[in-house]
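Morning run. Coffee first, then this:
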Amino acid sequence: MNGVEIIGYANYKIYPDGRVWSKIGKGKFLKPWINFWGYYCVGLSKNGNQKFLRIHRLLMQNFKPDEYEENLQVDHKNRIRADNRLENLRMVTHKYIKIQ
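And here it is:
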């Protein structure tokens, strides 16, 4: 599956495996980092403003937009936060996460 343009960020594409491509300049894959909570993140710029976004949320927004809801949590089914495969992600309520 090919990458798709990230909603709201025309200069970036995301691939199903979580890689993020920047179209700025010659183009390159961005190097993600792991935040304090153990999630992979990238920094995306638009109109001179940079925003740090979690890759698992970007994947759901862009590849499963019918399932994505801003007020829900993106859950990693196997509990491994670094495993951002689409088949490992689902939308759940905060209450569901707490019971697990």
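The first strand starts at residue 4 and ends at 6. Good start to the day.
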